[in-house]
């Protein structure tokens, strides 16, 4: 099976976790920012999380360096372009990239400038490489909530023009959903789709809450419905797609090993699973690697893989015309 040539869709990819190491060095030089080294291998090592981290928080530390250079319009536009370019070159047909606009205000950019720059980078990649895409706006659960509706309002002006959805990300505590009910409701009222990081760190209840309280149409990770029957049944009955990220899940100790990953068990039991990168640089991965990992670990046929591909098409936050194109590969 030619893994590079297989058509792919990535629905769960973080912008700040997918920056090219060489771009970090160049942008730091342009912006006059001190970084630990000019050696690309040293920078790469600082950006890539260990194959197994003690926990999610250790993994999240890898985002500090890229965020330091992602505070100008030019940097955001360039990095968005490059993430889509890298994906297009491995036959990713459609990609949804998520990022937290409020993490990019340190040098005075406003939310409009931040979102428009990322959208512009994506649009340039669409023009140059033929890949299709949308942007998901991630709000961080640990940050103050007073600007969330501002992000939603700006994002809503880009609906159908590059922005598709609202997301909650960051460290996961049991019961986080209740705090964000009003914001998810407001996002839906403005026309945004909703996907929520939940069930990544052992809390299947959070998946149930994300769907019932926040109206999540997809769930980021969601793997711990394996130990929460009520959440499993809800995901199955409502056919809520899970954005699984195999390598990342092993790294963050969400699962002990790839052999223990529930993606294939879920697929066989009728859960609409998808394969995604999470963070191309931090997890030192590509969609080709993730697809190969799953196919070889679980002995999937090409048709079984294409079933997962079609799950991704059906779950994508895009219009019917684009879905028809994606299904016609």
Written description of the protein model:
With 329 residues, this protein is of the alpha/beta class. The protein is built from 15 helices and eight strands. An eight-stranded parallel β-sheet has the order 1-2-3-4-5-6-7-8, sandwiched between helices. The model has no long low-confidence stretch (mean pLDDT 96).
- According to CATH, what is the topology? TIM Barrel
Following the backbone from N to C, one meets helices and strands in this order, namely EHHHHHEHEHEHEHEHEHHEHHH
What is the number of independent domains?
1
Helix content range of the residues, please? 40-55%
Family: Belongs to the metallo-dependent hydrolases superfamily. Adenosine and AMP deaminases family. Adenosine deaminase subfamily.
GO molecular function, one term: 2'-deoxyadenosine deaminase activity
Pfam families: A_deaminase
Organism: Vibrio thalassae
């Amino acid at each position: 099976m030619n893994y590079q040539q297989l058509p792919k869709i990535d629905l769960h990819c973080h912008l700040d976790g997918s920056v090219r190491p060489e771009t970090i060095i160049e942008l730091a030089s342009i912006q006059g920012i001190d970084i630990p080294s000019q050696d690309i291998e040293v920078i790469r090592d600082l950006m890539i999380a260990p194959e197994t981290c003690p926990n999610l928080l250790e993994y999240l530390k890898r985002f500090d360096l890229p965020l330091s250079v992602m505070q100008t319009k030019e940097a955001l536009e360039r990095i968005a372009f490059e993430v889509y370019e890298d994906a297009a070159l491995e036959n990713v047909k459609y990609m949804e990239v998520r990022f937290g606009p409020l993490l990019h205000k340190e040098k005075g950019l406003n939310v409009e400038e931040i979102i428009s720059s990322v959208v512009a980078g994506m649009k340039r990649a669409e023009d140059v490489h033929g890949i299709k895409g949308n942007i998901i706006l991630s709000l961080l659960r640990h940050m103050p909530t007073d600007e969330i509706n501002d992000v939603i309002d700006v994002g809503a002006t880009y609906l159908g023009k590059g922005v598709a959805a609202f997301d909650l990300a960051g460290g996961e505590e049991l019961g986080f959903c209740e705090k964000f009910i009003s914001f998810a409701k407001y996002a839906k009222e403005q026309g945004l789709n909703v996907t929520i990081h939940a069930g990544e760190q052992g809390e299947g209840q959070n998946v149930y809450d994300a769907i019932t309280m926040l109206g999540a149409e997809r769930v980021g990770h969601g793997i711990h419905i394996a130990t929460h029957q009520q959440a499993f049944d809800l995901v199955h009955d409502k056919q809520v797609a899970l954005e699984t990220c195999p390598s990342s899940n092993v790294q963050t100790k969400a699962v002990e090993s790839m052999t223990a990953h529930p993606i294939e068990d879920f697929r066989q039991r009728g859960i609409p699973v998808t394969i995604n990168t999470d963070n191309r640089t931090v997890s030192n991965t590509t969609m080709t690697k993730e697809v190969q990992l799953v196919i070889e670990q679980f002995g999937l046929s090409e048709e079984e893989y294409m079933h997962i591909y079609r799950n991704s098409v059906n779950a994508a936050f895009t219009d019917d015309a684009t879905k028809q194109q994606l299904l016609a590969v």
